[in-house]
Amino acid sequence: MKEQTITVSDPKGKQSSVKLLNSPKKFDTKQSVLSYFWKKDGGGSYKQRDEATSNGLEIPAHRFVSETPSICITNITKDEAVTIMQYYNTNNRLLNKSWTSAYAAEFLANDWILTGDALKFADSKASVPYCVLDGQHRLAGFILACEQCDKEGKTYPAFNTAVVSGMDSQTQAKMDRNLKRTLATLYQFSDNSATNTLAFRLARNWMKWDLATEVANVVSDRDISKAFRLYGEAINKTAQKFNRGINKTKNIGVFLACAKYLHHNPDKGEQFIERLLDGANLVKGSPILALRNYVGSSRNSISGGQHYYQASMKKAFYAIKRWHSGETIKNLVEFKGAVPMIPWQDLAEEKLDNPQGQ
Question: Other C-beta atoms within 10 Å of 162: how many?
């Protein structure tokens, strides 16, 4: 360790020099350790280890050290998570912000439970002894949650997890090779038999487009559950209706607009959906006919991306509003404004009660 010289004074004012050993570098809680891993060059643990050793500083140790595979269940502290991410996360991909934020949201909502999925650490034969092989996003999400608690003066969430230590570093190549259980696949096993893949997509986009998620631009399982709890009847019914599309064409923006109309006005919403599907008795100038033509056009059937889906939902809102008021239209224009600001409440049962025109 490098020595540090300081000057001290005795009670009579006589000065003398004293040599002190430098203590190990401490984590600065004012700057998130995660900032090292969100840079394009990676930065990260190798850089932190190199800086520490070049300055003669000791690399802090963590307690998950073993030469043979061993398993325990324990609570991870913030300091432990920081030490691991700062000095032992040397064999992983760059952090994904969305995944990290999703884990942080779970911790902040006290929704973390022991699943048996383990943090995994290498043995001493790895290029960096005892490095973390699996679990960086869980650790990063926990740190992010703790930092938020620091800002709000709250108690840290609990991170109770299984830990496997002493693994051969080569085993990392075999990890995460099976198909992940995504939120969509989990909802296929929902107790609600009406919940299917289309319903899941409607719920997911409902929360995202309405900016109603716990974490910006991250749709968590709690956000999906909330959508089904609040709007499930409209979501499930719409998914059942449009499961085969409109003329076999799928358009999430239009489907979601119909789900929102169904939520605010069940009777008229269902009428609109039925005519949109079967095209019965539609005449020139009908908003429903214009929307059917829009969805069925070859150009729109191959379009994709969030911007297109939002634009199609705004076009659907325009058609719905004109049909709701009994009006005809010459062409299908787009509602002007942001998706979260579309005034669906104006179509609620108690707001308007005009007869519909085809």
Answer: 16
pTM: 0.60
Cβ-contact 290, 329 below 8 angstroms = yes
List Cα–Cα distances, 303 to 254, 320, 340, in angstroms.
13, 22, 22
Is the distance from CB of 316 to CB of 253 less than 8 angstroms?
yes
Whether the CB-CB separation of 273 and 319 falls below 8 Å is answered with no
pLDDT values of the chain reduced to their tens digit, one per residue, 358 residues: 445 555 555 555 566 655 544 444 443 444 577 777 776 666 678 888 888 888 888 889 999 999 999 999 999 999 999 999 999 998 788 888 888 888 888 898 888 989 888 999 999 999 899 999 999 999 999 999 999 999 899 999 999 999 999 999 888 877 765 445 555 555 544 444 444 688 888 998 999 999 888 877 778 778 888 899 999 999 999 998 998 888 878 899 999 999 999 999 999 999 999 999 999 999 999 999 999 999 887 565 555 677 888 999 999 999 999 999 999 999 999 999 899 999 999 999 765 444 444 4
Please answer whether residues 157 and 112 qualify as being in contact, where contact means their C-beta atoms are separated by less than 8 angstroms. Answer: yes
If one counts every other C-beta atom within 10 angstroms of the C-beta of residue 128, the result is 18
Backbone angles phi and psi of 18, in degrees to 5: -130, 135
Place of tokens 């019965």: 280
User: Which tokens sit at 181?
Assistant: 């259980």
**Residue type for position 210:** D
Beta strand segments in 80-191, E: 118-122, 132-134, 160-167
Angstrom distances, CA of residue 5 to CA of 20, 21, 22: 6, 9, 10
Which residue's entry shows tokens 């049909």?
323
d(Cα 18, Cα 15) in Å, to the nearest integer?
10
Rounded to whole angstroms, what are the CA distances from 293 to 64, 242, 266, 279, 297?
62, 16, 24, 10, 6
Ordered by start, the domain boundaries in the chain are 26-174, 183-347
Sign of CA dihedral 102, 107, 113, 114: positive
- CB atoms < 10 A from the CB of 352, how many? 14
**215 secondary structure, DSSP code:** B
